[in-house]
Every structure is written in structure tokens, then in C-alpha cells.
Design a protein that fits this description.
signal, about 0% strand, Lipoprotein, about 100 residues
């Protein structure tokens, strides 16, 4: 009787262990997740909050947005008011307008 009780307890434990949640590895590889953390992207799928267009991450990459801020452009799509032809940004680039003014 003691052996049956022990076996029943062992089977019950195995059943519970099989249903227990396992450590789930996040999407992507370790290297793509590391790149996502450094660059601020979501190529691996592990960082959905870093996807383009979310509140925490406007469109484009961080480097594209930095270029837009420095050059006054809208390459990333994050600065629509800096697009050519908008009231704050006449047609052409700032560099192109500077060259045009020196002639």
C-alpha cells in the first residue's frame, strides 16, 4: 500500500511539472535582441514598444531622426512639419537653398 501511494504521488508530481510554465526565450536571437536594445528597433520582435510609430518610438530609426533634426528634413517621417513645401520649410534642402543664395 505504501508503494502505491508513493507511485501515485510521483505520477501526480510529474503531471503538475508537465503543466508548469517553462522559461520562454523571447523572440529573435540574442544578437538581434542586443542590436534592438542598442539601436532602439524591434527587428527581433522582442521589443514591440520600440516599433516604429508607437508613442515611445516615432517613425524612422534613431539615426534617421537625428539626421532630420540636424538637416531640417523629414526622411524618417517623424517630422512632417519639416517636409518640403510646409510653412516652416520652403522647397529644397537647407544646403540647396544656401547654395542658391550664394550665386
Amino acid at each position: 500500500m505504501m508503494i502505491r501511494t508513493s507511485m501515485l504521488a510521483a505520477v501526480a508530481l510529474l503531471g503538475v511539472a508537465a503543466c508548469a510554465p517553462r522559461n520562454v526565450d523571447p523572440p529573435g536571437t540574442a544578437s538581434t535582441r542586443a542590436a534592438d536594445r542598442v539601436v532602439g528597433t524591434n527587428a527581433s520582435g522582442a521589443y514591440p514598444a520600440q516599433s516604429d510609430g508607437t508613442a515611445a518610438n516615432p517613425p524612422g530609426t534613431a539615426s534617421e531622426r537625428a539626421l532630420d533634426r540636424a538637416a531640417g528634413t523629414n526622411t524618417s517621417g517623424a517630422y512632417p512639419m519639416q517636409s518640403d513645401g510646409m510653412p516652416g520649410n520652403p522647397p529644397g534642402t537647407a544646403a540647396g537653398r544656401a547654395i542658391g543664395n550664394t550665386r
